[in-house]
Structure formats: structure tokens, C-alpha cells
Amino acid sequence: xxxxxxxxxxxxxxxxxxxxxxxxxxxxxxxxxxxxxxxxxxxxxxxxxxxxxxxxxxxxxxxxxxxxxxxxxxxxxxxxxxxxxxxxxxxxxxxxxxxxxxxxxxxxxxxxxxxxxxxxxxxxxxxxxxxxxxxxxxxxxxxxxxxxxxxxxxxxxxxxxxxxxxxxxxxxxxxxxxxxxxxxxxxxxxxxxxxxxxxxxxxxxxxxxxxxxxxxxxxxxxxxxxxxxxxxxxxxxxxxxxxxxxxxxxxxxxxxxxxxxxxxxxxxxxxxxxxxxxxxxxxxxxxxxxxxxxxxxxxxxxxxxxxxxxxxxxxxxxxxxxxxxxxxxxxxxxxxxxxxxxxxxxxxxxxxxxxxxxxxxxxxxxxxxxxxxxxxxxxxxxxxxxxxxxxxxxxxxxxxxxxxxxxxxxxxxxxxxxxxxxxxxxxxxxxxxxxxxxxxxxxxxxxxxxxxxxxxxxxxxxxxxxxxxxxxxxxxxxxxxxxxxxxxxxxxxxxxxxxxxxxxxxxxxxxxxxxxxxxxxxxxxxxxxxxxxxxxxxxxxxxxxxxxxxxxxxxxxxxxxxxxxxxxxxxxxxxxxxxxxxxxxxxxxxxxxxxxxxxxxxxxxxxxxxxxxxxxxxxxxxxxxxxxxxxxxxxxxxxxxxxxxxxxxxxxxxxxxxxxxxxxxxxxxxxxxxxxxxxxxxxxxxxxxxxxxxxxxxxxxxxxxxxxxxxxxxxxxxxxxx
Amino acid sequence: xxxxxxxxxxxxxxxxxxxxxxxxxxxxxxxxxxxxxxxxxxxxxxxxxxxxxxxxxxxxxxxxxxxxxxxxxxxxxxxxxxxxxxxxxxxxxxxxxxxxxxxxxxxxxxxxxxxxxxxxxxxxxxxxxxxxxxxxxxxxxxxxxxxxxxxxxxxxxxxxxxxxxxxxxxxxxxxxxxxxxxxxxxxxxxxxxxxxxxxxxxxxxxxxxxxxxxxxxxxxxxxxxxxxxxxxxxxxxxxxxxxxxxxxxxxxxxxxxxxxxxxxxxxxxxxxxxxxxxxxxxxxxxxxxxxxxxxxxxxxxxxxxxxxxxxxxxxxxxxxxxxxxxxxxxxxxxxxxxxxxxxxxxxxxxxxxxxxxxxxxxxxxxxxxxxxxxxxxxxxxxxxxxxxxxxxxxxxxxxxxxxxxxxxxxxxxxxxxxxxxxxxxxxxxxxxxxxxxxxxxxxxxxxxxxxxxxxxxxxxxxxxxxxxxxxxxxxxxxxxxxxxxxxxxxxxxxxxxxxxxxxxxxxxxxxxxxxxxxxxxxxxxxxxxxxxxxxxxxxxxxxxxxxxxxxxxxxxxxxxxxxxxxxxxxxxxxxxxxxxxxxxxxxxxxxxxxxxxxxxxxxxxxxxxxxxxxxxxxxxxxxxxxxxxxxxxxxxxxxxxxxxxxxxxxxxxxxxxxxxxxxxxxxxxxxxxxxxxxxxxxxxxxxxxxxxxxxxxxxxxxxxxxxxxxxxxxxxxxxxxx
Lengths: 722, 722
Prior knowledge:
Two copies of one chain form a homodimer.
Chain A: H1 22-29, H2 39-60, H3 68-71, H4 81-98, H5 108-113, H6 136-156, H7 170-192, E1 218-221, E2 224-230, E3 244-250, E4 253-256, H8 262-270, H9 282-291, E5 299-302, E6 305-309, E7 314-316, H10 327-341, E8 345-346, H11 350-359, E9 387-388, E10 391-392, E11 399-405, E12 430-434, E13 451-454, E14 461-462, E15 466-467, H12 483-493, H13 503-515, E16 522-526, H14 532-537, E17 543-548, H15 551-561, E18 566-573, E19 576-582, E20 596-600, E21 613-619, H16 628-634, E22 639-649, E23 667-669, E24 672-674, H17 676-684, E25 688-704, E26 707-720
Parallel strand pairs in A: 11-14, 16-17, 16-21, 17-20, 21-22
Antiparallel strand pairs in A: 1-4, 2-3, 4-15, 5-6, 6-7, 8-15, 9-10, 11-12, 12-13, 18-19, 22-26, 23-24, 25-26
């Protein structure tokens, strides 16, 4: 039945918007303001924005010479283009379903085939399942049905303005902006196809303008503060990673006036740059060994000399066009340049790119000229064509690699209907690219846009180099996904469940009520795990040491103490997770960060310098020690006389942690029940008196959205008397 | 220092009570009424009761010929007598500590050595650790110190009458009654010693009276009801197993007028009874093979004929004295007798012994004559000496084996300071002995007394046989100790924690509010586990089937449906446990027991007869199925049209239960989050409509005293429409 419908498409009236004329280019160029106008105006705007995008994307496939171009992979790591042809349509259906703008699928089978092949953000792990692709005509029919469906939604679905992050219509813009990303990435795949598989298309003509490359030079970018802050009230669509706050003070640095041209890059190639591992970072060496590259991927060496592969053709090298390379090649060039010049040449950080942007005024105004939004044509252009301030191509022409792995800003949260857009790239293996290319449209060309790719990947991307001091460390982007670590992050810093107040805070508050006006100089949080009680103690003590046997746990406290966000996933149901982040500031603990010190240590064998404490907390520790008697028998040595030891434990003795013969209690001794409290009294009697307790303090550890450990910790306070 | 004190003992005035004269025998004979008189009278009574017991016990050791008798084991399965010499004193210290009548130990080392060697109720698993026993003199000094301590407590501790189960003074009576038990068991150990190790003592003289044995005959015991009911308000001390209620209607039966005499037993021995496995039960055969016994253990074959071993001497056989044997020998005798006579000869049940007691009037009066409480001497006597009604020795002379393994009465609970007195014997391997022996005193001679021993063990015990029909099944005595089973018993039938109401009850109440006045004939509780919801449903439905994959779980529901108590241990801390029991009646569910039927079954492959239901509950089931799609795809076949399926689950998908490809939800499907609810909607859509929900219902599973699982189960109701 589906194939019978294929002939209809030429007759449908909306096909008339296919040709990309100047008016349409303007429509497609910019992502709309989502707060302006009436609902009817908004419907009209989105109708045009959708149609220009959807149809522009289809027209890109006119660059394929035949059906073979749809089914042959252009690179081994990604699906063939037939997948991407269907994928952008399926994406609309999926997101509209999640937003409840529609309530049923268009085609269950296609929507399974076209949903996920390769996560566009984690390129290099293609699932090698056998796909049985449908025909191009079948997919076109499917696209037409989706096109009609989206138009129907735009025309008829209830619409309450503004369209913001929480509005169901966000899904529509998301679908359009998603297709714009694929417009660009599919153009790269077409460019990576064998020339025989592609053909020229009148809508996708490359520029031809080329001359001798300019001589690059370093210009100063003065010091300044970069402030990035996109809120939910911003009128323009954004991907999750753009929201939140970030600021940085950037020292003055020098940056190359132009992007590195093919001419400039040639010197590196001719200097044997691809043969000299010395210039390459370790990951770059691995890539070089794997790829056996000897020049940039779009350079073609012919007997008559160097040619340049464009999207649909090979042309004699345009030496004044930007060199298009991956991060590793760009980085190797910088290292070579550094060696050649003795200058601290490297790629800019993301912050430095923003500083450059601000310096040339692009934070407040659009560029007067830029090779982006398909405004000049379907290719790069000379690096000295589009001037922006003293520099060229700060935005446009090709993307520019940075030194910065993508990381979330403070306040980052995922969008519920697309929770894996960015999070899988928070792995310090995806570097940010900035500025957009000739085909970047809509969100991609916004100042706030942040896209990141694996460092070995190719886009229409090149680079500008800078001469500057050391890089600031990259903010952490790691999400704690280990089950136990995540559970403890939530246990210490997360939400409260069943009305049970935060355990660490509760313990410290209780301790303060017992300690009264005793000396509060030094405290020790032994078995500090993720460290919350360490920070809570530092509200009251001048110095607090957090010690845990597990170096992994310590990292969470260290991260927070350094002012960073602690990010972790929360298990929801099955494999589904939520994303969460907390900072000390949110918990009112920012002032404590310089009074804590975390270290790895063994409570049964403490380092000698850990001594002279006024207070020691051992929360949920004793029933996890391999030899609790060693701890109980020596801990007085670390406390000042009159100092207080606070023990809290559910006494969950398990042989996997503590051999049964070393349990403090919880067994029959000489025929009678001998509790852990009995054992504590016996083992501590020599140096301590029981000051307060026992008292039970509840705690809750979240395992999934619907499963929790709910426990009671018995708390006792012991004063050192001897 | 301790040895330096040994010379003091002869001089202390309380040694004057040592000799057992007639007055003291009366004092020791009966356990005191704990509700009578003034506190000062009570102190005087307990002082005398304690002293007569403590000193009588010490005098028993005068029967040992030398120190060697203290240190050589009389039987391999138990400690040497030095242990028992110290043990009864240590027991006082331990229980007084637990009752907080004292606050420190007398001797830490001795109290470790003498606390537990062999649990007197589980004889055959001696810990073969190396003991380094103190000298007899050292132990005597220790006993003297304990004696003085107990007297001081009796004389000075605060005393509020009455002394009942919850009164700290209960520990004092417990110590005394405990020592009386050891008076008897130690006398057996002395009797089992080699003759060379013992000696006659003027205080412990055996009777010499003996003549030709009478000819035994069967007398009728008329039918009647046995009612046993000891409450906490009873004025006489009791062990935990005596409390609670039990009643039974006993058909008329015949019982032997006399205990089986040595003469009567000789016929069995001479008939080759010990050589013919045919007469022995399996467990008896194992014992026979192990022991190589050829006659009763206290019979001694000499060249001049059969002798009888008494406590301190061997005498020519007293043929008219009772044969003393273990259960296996008694049972084999009955089987032989049955074969010889063609009559249904066996041992009496505990209930039949009580019926006999009632028949001869011993439920309302003490016997006018009985060989017990050391009234006649330190040995058995002829079986035709003490007449009680038409019978002889219904109480006294030797204990009488019954067919009944000890079990708890309804209402049984352990005493907190001695929680392992009886519970370890609830294993269907310990049979009750009744009636007491010549040395039984105090609690042991009460009508309510219930002692049980391993069936292969020796006491001063023999038997009477009965001719009667089949034995009634023994009430269950098993305590569920398996961790998961116990947790579920508590989850379904136990207490509520954190204010979360019983999950099963909550679900059924919710179901009733949703079902309204729909048909309520047949309901199915699928994955019923311990069965609480099955019973709760049976409040409303005529027939309820409870089905679970685990036959072990089913046993709990089956047990309760049969009217029995469900007994289980609760993990407290480490290895410590509490004991718990619940019945349907306590939960107001007694009326439901005949409307439920439990069976083992697989929710993914149900038996064909399970159909035609108006309501099906699947609580916390789907995420434990190996193939939930099979269940969801076929469950409509078991429901009437218009019937309702109720699903409840925390959706805790785990690969150990369900392969990931079979999860209903909780994963990314075609790139999007696909929840279990999404999956349920997809899989049930064909035959069901969502009637109500989703709604979360909390539940709590107790793991230890301080550790709980606290979860939320998502509940949905689905009406079958097709």
C-alpha cells in the first residue's frame, strides 16, 4: 500500500516550497523568537520554519547520484544515508508523542528502524545489527505522511504562548532544530561519499572564489570577563547544554587573525607533520595509527597536484579556504607551530572563543558578513572574505575546534523528552566546536550554541590558533553513574524521602546540641563517604578532616570542596535514569569549602597526623570495618581529653565486611544475647564514658524511583575521660 | 587469690542446710506460689527454696568418688560434670544481670567457661573446643560467691509482688528451677559414669524394695476433652512452652495399667528385639547401628545374670522396676508388641497422657502416693507401688515417653531473658516426656510441665503403652528461619513500620473501592507469596485461589488456612533473632480460611482450571516473571469479560529474574524512554481498558531491627473488554 502512494508526492501543493530561494534562505536561517506575536502568527512562523527545514533537508538528497548513494555507507562508523533520510521524520513523531501533541505513531516499523542508529554525539560505536532498509520511495512516502502530520499539529493543536521549555510545542521546534543539525551532518556524509555516488545540484552549488592565501598573523585579544547565562525565559530555542550560568575572567591572549588556511596547513604537511608522532597527543597518535592519514581528509592528491573535495565535486585546491581537520590534526599543527616558533601556540578554549566573539562585538550584534546560514553558497570560502572586527570568520565558514571538552554549566538540567541529547557527551572525550559553518542554520548559529564532537570526527570544521598561557582546568563534566556512588551522592546531597531529613545534617545538628559550648577547633569525620557531614561539621569547627577507606567516595567531597558541581545519575526504573547536580552553594555550605580536607584512610589504621581532635564522628562505619576492635581500641588516641566520639550505626553486621569473630555484638555471648551496644560499652569503657544515647536516627537511601533502604542508625556519644 | 579462699567454705553458716532432711525435702519439692503473702514472706520463701536447691545440687556431687569423676566425661556427647557443677551458678549470674538485679559479673572467666557447653535441649552437638577446666575447689569458691550474691539479692533487692513473667525477680525463680533441671540431668550423668568413679552417699540412697513383676494389663481410658491453658497470671513458675492454650477431644483408648517393667521388657530383649530392625523406626535403626545396643542402657549383663545400674551402684536386676529406655527402644517394644498381639500398640500422645491424668484425677489433686520429689528415695521403685486411680505411676517413678514432638501452644512466646530455652527444640526431633521421675522436683512435677528431649537420649525415663487408633497429626512446631521466608511472613502478617499500613490489606481495600458492586464470586491472587492478600480477598469473594511459583511461600498460607499458627524468627541485629507467631484469628481473618485455596503455579503458564475469575490481583509480580509478556498476553483468558486485573509493582527490573529483552519497560525504546506503564498499556491494549490508576502504594519489608526496604508499588486496574 505504501509504495502505491509514492506517485502522489509530486502533486502535493506543499512541494512548491522546495526550491531554496533567497526568501526561504532567510526563513530557514534563524530560529524564531518564541515569545512574539499572536498564536496565529506563531503557527504561520512555525509552518514556514518547519517547511523550509523539512524540504531543504530533502533537497540535500538530490546530491546523491542514484539510490546506491542512499545505501552505501560513506564512512564505516555511521549508517548509510537512507537512515538519515528517514530519521529526521521519525524524530518528529517520537517527540510529538512524548509531548502528547499526537497520540499514535505514523508507522511502527519505520519508527523502529529510523529511531536510533548512531547516537550523533557518540559517533564511533555503531551497532552492527543487520538492517533491512526500505526503498527510497517508501521512505519518501513516510516523510510525506509525517510532513502532513506535523503541519496538521501546527495548524490545529491547542497553542498557549509563549512556547518555552515546558510547553508541549517545544517538541515541534526541537524537531525542526534537530533536522537542521542533520542537514549539516548529512552534508558531511555526502561530502565523504565517493565522488561517483554524488552529483551536482543547482540548489547546492559551491562557491568558486579563491586566490592566494593571506599570510596569517597574531592579533591581541584584550583581557575580559566572559559571561554566559541562558535562562528558561530566553525567547530562542536552545539545547539543554546551553542553559545555566558560566563566567570566566580571561587574560589577554593573541589569536590568529584568520582561520588556518589550506596554504598555512600545507607547511605542516610538508614538514612531515603526519609522520612525526612527536606533534601528536596520545589519542591523536592512536587515531593516526588507525586512520593512516597523511593529509587532511578532504584533500585529494592527484598527479596534477592537490585537489579539494567539496560536497559534490573535487576542485583544484583552494589554498585560501580554511583547512578542514579534526581536533587531533589541529592540535598537532599547533604543537608543530609551537616547536617552530617557540610560542605557546594552541587551540583556544571555549571561553577564549567567547572572549574573541565579545571583542569583535558579536555578543551584541549579528555579523555584517559571515559565511553561514547558507547565505553565500554551499561551501567554504576564502579565510579573508568575511571580516568581523579585526578578525575574520569568528563565526561562519567552518566550525572551529577548541581545547575544551563539553561540560554542563551550573544549573544544567536535561529536557524530559530528550534526556540523552548532551549527557552522553559529558565524558571529556567530546570537544566543543564553535562558530558554525557555511551550512549552519538556526540554533547552530546562535551565540549560545554549544556543539561537541569526538575529537577524531570530521565536520565542516577547521581551527584558529592562539598564543596564550596555560589552559584553565576544564570544569568537571563527569556524571557519576556507578550505582553505589550515585546512591551516596543522593543520600548525602540529594532530596529527602518519606519526610526523613538529611542524615548527615541531622547527625551534626544532634551533635551540636550535645556538645554545647565545648571546644570546636578540630573535627574528624571518619568514614565520611561522599562527605556531607564533613561540610556540615565545618559550619561549626575551624578544621574538619573527612577520611574514608574508599578513594572513590572521597572524590565527591573533593569535587564539591573545589567549588564544582557534583553530578550524578539517579536510577529511575530499569535502565532509565534521571540526571542530577548539586553544589555546596545550593546547600548553604559554600562558606565551608576551605575548612575541610578530605583524604583516604583506614579507620583501623589511621595516619599519625590525624590527631588532636575535639570531636570525631563515625557514621555508619563500625559495621563496615574489617576489625572494629582495632578502631574502638585506639580511637581515643586521636581525641583530646574531654573530646567526644559520636558513633552511629544500624549494626548491620555482614560477614562480607567483618568476619563474624570480629563483630562487636549481635550474637550470643556466653549463652546470652550480646548486642552491639553491649560490645561498645565493653570495648570503650577504658577511655570513655557514655555521654548521651542510645538514640535512633533514621536515614533513607534511594535505589530507584520506587525502591529505598530505610534504616535506623543507633547513635551514642562517648566522652574521652582517660 | 581465688584458691586462697577455698578453706573458708566449711566455716560459713549456710553450710548447715546441706543435709537433706524431711523438712528440706518438702521445701525443695514444690515450686512456690508467687502471688501469696507479703514481700518479706516471699523473701523468706525464696531464700529457703534457693538454698535447698543450691545445696541439694552440690550434695549430688558427693556421689563422685574423686575429682576424676568431675573431669572424665560420662558420655561423649556432653561436658564432664565439672562444667555442670559451675554452670548452674553462672546461670544465676547471667539471668540476674539480664534482669538488672545485679550490674556486674562475679567472675568473667568462669562465667565464660560455664555459660554454654551443650544446650541441654539439643544434646548431640557438643562443641569440641578444648576446655581448660578449673579445679573443683576453685569452682566451689565460685559457687559460694554466687550463693552469697543470690542471697543478698533475695534479701535486699526491691521487690514488688506478685512475681510474674515480667517481674525482674522471675530471674531468681528461673535460676532455681534451672538448677532443679540440672539436679536431674546431672544425676543421670552420674548414673552413666563408670561405677569406679562414683560412690554411695547417705543422702542419695536407692530404694531396695523389689519383688516379682506384676502382669501388665490394658485398662480403658474413657473419651474426654483435654484442656491446657496456662496464663501469665498463673501463680506458679512456668517455662515458656507451658503458656498458651491447647485443647483436644480424645477418643477412648486403652492404656497399660503399669509402666513397662524390666520383666516385661525382657521378653522383647529375649525375642531378639534389638537384633530385628523390623521393629525399629528409621531414626531408631540409625541409633541402633550407631550405639550397637543389645539391651537397655542401665542393664548390666554379668556371668551371674542381669544387674541394674542405679546412680551409685549395680544391683541384681529389680524385675518389677520400670524399664528405662530411650524413645526408640520404647517404640520398638511397642512395634514388637503390636506384632505379637495384633493390637494397635503404641506410645501415648501427650494429649492421651493428659487424658489419663484427668481420668485418674491428677488434674485437680496431687497424687496420694508417687515416687517423685525425692519423697521415696534416690531411685525408681516397683511399678506396682504407687497407685493413682486404677493405674500406677501416672506421675512419678520414671518419665514416660510420648509420641508427640514438642510444639508451641497458641499464644506461645519466648521469655526475653531466656529466648532459647525451648525454641531450638521446635524441630520435630524432640519428643515430650511426661510425669516426672523420682528426682523431679518443683516445676518438673507440675501438671503443666512440658519437657522434651532428643528421641535417642536417656533420662530416668521409661514408658507406658496404649492401644488406640491413629495418632492425630502433631501441630506444627517449625519456626521459619529462612531469611526471605521470615521477611515475607512479617511483611504479610506482622507489624507495621514507619506508619505504612499492611500492603496486602491496603491493596485489597483499594481494590474494593474500585470494584464497587461488581460481581465477587471468584478471585485469583497471583504471586500470592505468603498469602495475606488471598485471605483479605476472601473477606469479599466466595472463593479465592492463591497461586505462587514458590511452593515454599505457599506453605505459609496453607499453614494458616489449616488454622495453625505461623511462626517465624525476626532478624534483630547480627545473628540475634526474635520469635514471632501469628494466626488468622488475631488478624480477624479466621472466617476466611475455608474460602481460600493455595497452589503452586507459574503465572506465565497457568493451569487450565484457573479460570472464570471476576478479579485477579498480581501484586509485586510482573518484575519477577521470567517472561512477563506471556503473562500479560494471556491473562485475559482467565478473567470474565468485565472482570478486573489489578497490577501492583515497583518495577524493579533485574536481569537475575527477567532477561533484559523481556522487561516490560524501563529502557530506551526506539530512542525514547519507555516506562513499564508504557509497556503495560501496549501489551494489555487488545483486551483491556485502563480502569484506574496509576497510583502509588507504599510497602515496607523488615530486614533487621534497624534496616528496612521501603518501596512504592505502582497500582493500575484494567477492565477486560474483549
